[in-house]
Amino acid sequence: MSKKHPKCYDCGRLYGDEYGFPDLVIPDWAWRAISPRGNSVGLLCPSCICKRLYEAKIRNCPSAFTSGPLTFDVKSWIR
Question: Quick check: is 22 in a domain?
Fold first, then answer.
């Protein structure tokens, strides 16, 4: 029995750094507003997160990549 690979709810991009789909973290209030299933559940790639934020008229949303080549390290910015 094979496990289904996670993918973006909107565009179908497979989840993982190797597919160009790193973790982009946004605040809970923003995620609840754009959640694919309306109940804070689901998976969206960074591009689709941005598209949904735009459609929801959410601007200047705090965010951080927490995996992949663009990982944000707060401590490195404080120095």
Answer: no
